[in-house]
Every structure is written in C-alpha cells, then in structure tokens.
Design goal:
4 domains; 2 helices; two-stranded antiparallel ribbon; alpha+beta; 5-stranded antiparallel beta sheet
C-alpha cells in the first residue's frame, strides 16, 4: 500500500520531532540552576586567590620596609604615576629638591592625591625641631617604593607593589621615621605617630598612637585606590570603608565585612608595623644611607661595664653619654671629652684650652721645675722627677741578637729585646 503524502496531516509524512520553545525554556532554566553553584564556587575561588596574593604582597612589603635601613624606613612613592613615568616607584624623599613643605596636605574628602602629608597623632622626642609639644610630626601617605636614592630596593619588584586586584598597595609612614639625613639620634619606638583602630575603636598598633607605618589594600571594591596606571577611584569617607582614604592619621584594621549594609561595609586589608622597644645600637651609614662597619648607640644615658650602677652625672663639659668601667680600660685609641678616675674626680679634660691637652701649663701638662722630666700622669696632672743622667763617655750597646729602638731622657737606650741599658 503506497503512502499518500498529499495530506500534511499524515503522520508518516512529517520529519523528526524537535523541541518546542517551552521545552527549551525548561532546559535553559535547569542548566542555569545547575551552573549557579559552579559559578559561586569559581567566584569564591577567584576571590580567595586575590586575597592570598594581597596578603602575601602586603607581608612582603612590610618586611622590606622594616629592614630597609638601620636608620630609617623609606618614604612612600607617588601612587598617581604610571609605569615609565619619571620618578615612578621612587622614594619621594630622595628625589632631588624634595622638601617637606613642598608636599601637599592630604585631601580629606575621599579624593586623596598620589602623595601627601598630614599632621600625625603627636609630637615626638626625636623630630626635626627637637622641641616636644611644638608641632605634631607628619605622616606621609603614598604607595610602596621600589627605588630609593637611585638604587632598587631589594625584594621589592613592581609586581609586589600591587594587591590581588592589580591596584597599588597604599603605604603611610611617620616622616620622623623616614626622614633622610637625620642629624640626631634615632629611636624607632619613639617615632610612631600613626593611630590604628579596629572596628570597635580599640588600638591595634600600640597604645599611644605610635604606629611607625601601615600598608593596606583598598580591597575588592578598590574605593580609595590607584590602579596600576595611576587612575584613582574616590571613596566615601562617611563609611567604615572610608577610614583608610580620608586623609588623616587614623587607619582601620578590622575584619572584612562585605555583608555590612551602608556605612558598615568594609573590605580593606591593613598591616600595621609597631616597635615596642628600641634597639641599643645602630649602624652608621655613608652618604648613600648604606650601612658601614661603624656603630653608634641610640641611647644617651650611662653605659656600665662591670657595674650595675654606672655614674649618671658626667663631669663638667662632658656630654650626657657616660662609659663607666669598673676595672682597667685598655684600647688602642680613645676619643673622649674627659678621662676620670673611678670616683669621677681628677678628670683629664681633653677639650678645654686650660685642660691637660690645652696650652702649656707648668705643673699641669708640663714640668714646672727646670731639668725635671715627665714620668707619669696622676690626678689630671703630670708627675715629674729629676732624671738620672748617665755619665758622658759611657758607651751603650744592645746585646747580641737585638738592636737599638730608642733613647730615654736619662741617657739609657731601648733595645728590641724590651730591655733598657
């Protein structure tokens, strides 16, 4: 029996059956529902990866900044510069012509500049004016530097200055702790003027607003951050998230709160560096701020060797640093203001014109009696005696195997065997 396909309704004349629009909609809906968990997992994986990169780069930057020099931390770099620009990544304090007065004050409306300054929490005892209570020390805010004094900072390549979202890490430091060419002593634990608080207002970098520097990422939103090309995203200073970009000396170190509504949202990540005690000694640096083999102390008090009660009242004319030795001090060379006995009296003043090493003073640094010679020093004065002069015409020779090294004022000779004849 032949098939009659002249009628469209004949079932054997139709092609393969397809999906209707309703069926396609169900397929897409089911696929989407199945993809949601996968997309969420990927988003969480990617977020965790960026957070780990951020934490790693921040920890690296903290270590590099902390050990940059025994004298100072580096100053920030200008965040607004893009790669290839002059002074990109350069410690601004080492740029020719730098002055603190030339650094702009930080914008406090959420539109921070690439580099700026703001008065810190307090005045320190180690500052440019040396007057406590005169002016609060400044905080410098910028980016992580990679070059200082024309030299690359070891361990700080450009890629390590970015967070996991490719934005520049921020760096704020006490200028007192970062200032080059400091003429005075340097006690790091006294120089912090940065306040760091948690979400409850508790201090997290010392109890006296004495953080030395902070390093922070503006988080996933990037509010208040400069990207790798120096483009800035303003922030809202009325929110918790805006505390780190409002241009003041207070920063927030708190748990991220990406679910926080309105002003409670916070996604920054911050590390605060604080030293609770000072090192006793520091390395003296050369003109390029590189360590030398010489050392000097941070402190200005007394140093006791063999005594737990070193003298704290220096003799007149001496500075405040005292070396009090209980015993015998032996050294190839000594440079000092005064040499005193164990009681701090009978001092040899080496600076005064009227002291032992000053102008000729009979009875003080030269023998008063004609014909006497100096035989020692006692109580800050020479000890003199009449020499025993060998009779003229008496030959003096050194024993066999030794040779003449010198002559004494009494006519004796000094031989290489250590004896006099």
């Amino acid at each position: 029996m032949s098939k009659n396909c002249s009628k469209n309704f004949h079932p054997r004349c139709n092609g393969p059956a397809g999906f209707t629009l309703i069926e396609m909609s169900f397929v897409l809906l089911i696929s989407s529902i199945m993809l949601i968990p996968l997309l969420m997992l990927y988003y969480q994986y990617d977020l965790n990866r960026k957070i780990e990169i951020t934490k790693s780069n921040m920890a690296n930057a903290e270590t590099v900044m902390a050990v940059f020099s025994p004298l100072r931390y580096p100053c920030p770099a200008d965040r607004s510069l893009r790669p290839g620009a002059a002074n990109y990544g350069v410690d601004v304090c080492t740029v020719a012509g730098f002055t603190l007065a030339g650094v702009p004050n930080c914008n406090t409306t959420g539109n921070e500049q690439g580099f700026c300054k703001i008065p810190g929490a307090r005045d320190t005892v180690d500052d440019t004016d040396n007057i406590v209570g005169n002016n609060n020390e400044f905080v410098l805010i910028g980016g992580i530097p990679t070059i200082s004094g024309g030299l690359l900072i070891a361990g700080m390549p450009d890629e390590k200055t970015l967070d996991g979202w490719g934005r520049k890490l921020n760096y704020a430091v006490s200028f007192t702790s970062a200032r080059p060419n400091r003429p005075e002593g340097f006690s790091r634990f006294q120089n912090g003027v940065i306040n760091v608080v948690d979400e409850f207002g508790n201090n997290t970098a010392g109890v006296n607003n004495d953080g030395q520097f902070v390093i922070y990422s503006s988080g996933e939103t990037g509010l208040g951050a400069y990207n790798a090309n120096g483009i800035f995203t303003p922030c809202n200073i009325a929110t918790s998230d805006g505390e780190n970009c409002d241009g003041d000396f207070t920063f927030r170190q708190a748990l991220a709160n990406s679910e926080g509504a309105g002003g409670g949202f916070f996604d920054d990540r911050l590390l605060a560096y604080n030293v609770s005690g000072g090192d006793l000694w520091m390395s003296v640096t050369d003109n390029n701020f590189l360590p030398t083999t010489h050392m000097r102390p941070f402190f200005t008090g007394a140093v006791g060797i063999g005594t737990d009660t070193p003298a704290t009242a220096p003799p007149a004319g001496a500075n405040n640093l005292m070396l009090d030795v209980s015993g015998t001090l032996k050294a190839g060379a000594i440079r000092t203001d005064n040499l005193c006995n164990v009681n701090g009296t009978f001092c040899l003043n080496v600076n005064s014109n009227t002291g032992f090493f000053g102008n000729r003073q009979p009875g003080v640094n030269s023998c008063a009696t004609p014909g006497n010679v100096m035989t020692g020093i006692s109580s800050g004065q020479v000890v003199c005696a009449a020499p025993t002069i060998a009779a003229p015409g008496v030959d003096k020779t050194c024993p066999s195997g030794s040779f003449l090294k010198g002559l004494l004022s009494d006519g004796k000779i000094i031989c290489s065997n250590g004896q006099t004849y």
